[in-house]
Amino acid sequence: MGKSFRNSKFFGFMILAVMVLFFYAVFKFLSPSNFGSPANLFSYFQSSIIYSVGGCGLYFIVVMGLFDFAVGANIVLSSIVGVILSEKFGYAGFIVGCLGCGTLIGIIIGMLYNRLNVPSMIVTVGIMLILESVAVFAAGGVKQTLAPELRFFSGAPGNIILAFLAFALMWFILNYTRIGTYCNAIGSNEFTAKNMGIDVKKYKLIGFALLHFFVGIMAILTVSYGTTMTALTGMSTMSRNFQPLMGTFFGVAFRKYGNPISAIVIGEFIIAIIFNGFVALGAPTTIQNVVTGAALLAIVTLTARGGRGSVIK
Amino acid sequence: MSVLLKAEHIDKRFGITHAVNDVSIDVSAGEIRALIGENGSGKSTFCQMLCGIYTIGGGTFTLDGQVVNVKNQVEANKLGVSIIVQEMGTLSGLTVAENIFLGHEEPFMSHGIKNTRAMIREGQKLLDAYGFNSIRAGAMIDSYNFEDRKLVEIVKATYMKPKILIVDETTTALSQNGRLELYKIMDSVKADGRSVIFISHDLNEILTHCDTISILRDGEYIDTVKASEIDEDGLKRLMVGREIGSAYYRTDYGKAISPEVVLSVKNVTVPGQIENISFDLHRGEILGFGGLSECGMHEVGKAVFGASLDRSGTVTLSDGTAINDIPSAVKHSIAYASKDRDNESIILNESIRNNIVLPSLDDLAESHLLKAGKLNHFAQEYAEKMQTKMQGIHQLVSDLSGGNKQKVVLARWLGKGSDILVLDSPTRGIDVKVKQAIYALMQELTAQGKSIIMISEEIPELLGMSDRILIMKDGKINGEFMRSESLSEEDLIAKMV
């Protein structure tokens, strides 16, 4: 195989397709009756695209070498704000509430990160704790339920349309604006990027704002899918960070093939297949964390592992 | 010729270091001006102020009648100043076209939307025009090797037709073909009535390709001379401030090599790098390894030091001890100085002291405890022995010039008392004064019975310093030469190509 083929988009796509087929075949073989019917696959896909949207948002900051622990907390808060506003303003309130709250939190995180000059991980852990408490106040300690007449995004085609609009937006930003180029440049070498006249602080702020705009979309899909949202404290939103992040890892690992978005979407679908495959095998619910952790390690090892002798930190 | 660039009283301090001290230089239009000096003489700092990498400490740059005081390279580009740097200047994760136009996307933007296809088309047009057709503008830059990426950087720095092009020690990163391309571009800049500032330690290259030469020493301006009116010795004298004469290389010939073998390499293969390499290293010998840059000679150094992956074959000491990994190499008195000094030999963000004591901590510990005073004394002793130019042993290595970094590397192994030294490109990017000091040290060490494997891309260095030379080609040893006055560069080249 030629070097150019091995670097092509097609080759990257082929690897992902082989992974999908492999995991599908394994679980179909082990559990032929409970796993993998067309209806099941469609269901896995619908749940995976919710995380894919978050994965797309996270890509903007992960590629710059930053991290965000407040994603889960913002999903909860934005969902609650959206549901509360939907009670007065219908769909407009729901959508604007989720997107507006999400984006505003992103801007605040970006500004704090730039202003405090401390690692993004520390800033976002602090913000996560604050957001969890704000969400409890906003919800008034009550489970927030989305009205039945506002559940267009709870299933197909609404959820798919919205998710694909988000993917299209990400594709547009990466390929047709400066933002994608500059985020990659900052991640590659921040000092050189500065010397190229790139306003690094501005683009980090934009990165956080974009991430949380996508988190706002994820909040719409999440609360529509589950129909309710409960505010919890004690870092319980932390677990919501990792599933979208796994898609981002796929995106970062496959960006060398030129299209991280398909890698994020297919990567999340692979994780959904693995998770549902174990469920079909009758593994207990708690297996989710084991599977999530194992899948994360396996994926990163297979796709993003450094060459032999390379320095890994 | 009219003056294109006027630098007046340029000054820069880093803490107590006076890096550039009141330097005034005029560069004429249509001129290739070399800027030379020892490591740490201030030439790179001078240029980096001109192109916005450093802020100007004092004085004024005037380019074509306009004062230049820029904050970054893009602003410098807009005023007509471009630079090609020594190390990697392209950014991973971007396409070739995005790298070429980074910071200059405006022609491809319309209402905030980037015309990616037009950018790639324009990038490819430029690459084709430069003759770099094999590089694809739409491909990720990561899919190209160091040299191709350097060629992309050359396009990036020159496509806007800068009034002043700065070439900062770039040629060491390029093969002969790449160098020829760069020289052609420099000539075309000159022919257009624009100017080049060329920084290099290769005096022969400077005399061949430059019109005039400005010399800096310890941050101060010394003189400007015409290339046609001076020779290498004259330049060395101006750079160093004293005569660098015949003692530059060894002058002894006919010295018998000791029959005692201290290290034996048998049938060593590293897949894709070297194949079936066998040789013996003798006590007190300088064994030179030469060849074209991709011939595998650099891997030989790593293989001897136990740093190669998937190595087969054996590396054994005279007592039969096998060297298969780095810890056993260090334990058995083998030292290694990599060609990639900044990434593989020194810890940039650590102090000179910590770099020097690193492999000797076990020896310096008392009951497993380290005493700061003892470490300081040890580091001070060997840093001074190597005449390292420093503010103190607690200074960060990242603040040092290339030559002084190399002195720290050598001080480390000197302190460790290593008996076998593997020195890969020991004088790469190093000025003549430090070169002379390193050559003198090598002779001193071999006189003490220590043995050296010297891997070098510089043929005069191989001829001047080695007792025996092994020439490599395509991963194999292709020729062996004993030290001799009659041995010529042509003899070695004939075995390299």
Lay out the secondary structure.
The complex is a heterodimer of chains A (313) and B (497).
Chain A: H1 3-6, H2 9-30, H3 38-62, H4 71-116, H5 120-139, E1 144-145, H6 158-176, H7 178-188, H8 190-195, H9 200-226, E2 228-229, H10 242-254, H11 260-280, H12 287-304
Antiparallel strand pairs in A: 1-2
Helix pairs in contact in A: 2-11, 3-6, 3-9, 3-10, 3-11, 4-5, 4-9, 6-7, 6-9, 7-9, 10-11, 10-12, 11-12
Chain B: E1 3-14, E2 17-28, E3 32-36, H1 43-50, E4 58-63, E5 66-68, H2 73-79, E6 81-84, H3 96-100, E7 109-110, E8 113-114, H4 116-130, H5 146-158, E9 164-168, H6 176-191, E10 195-199, H7 203-209, E11 212-217, E12 220-226, H8 232-240, E13 261-270, E14 274-282, E15 286-291, H9 297-304, E16 312-317, H10 326-331, E17 334-337, H11 341-345, H12 352-357, H13 361-364, H14 372-385, H15 402-416, E18 420-424, H16 432-447, E19 451-455, H17 459-465, E20 468-473, E21 476-482, H18 489-496
Parallel strand pairs in B: 3-10, 3-11, 6-9, 9-10, 15-19, 15-20, 17-18, 18-19
Antiparallel strand pairs in B: 1-2, 1-4, 4-5, 7-8, 11-12, 13-14, 13-16, 20-21
Helix pairs in contact in B: 14-15
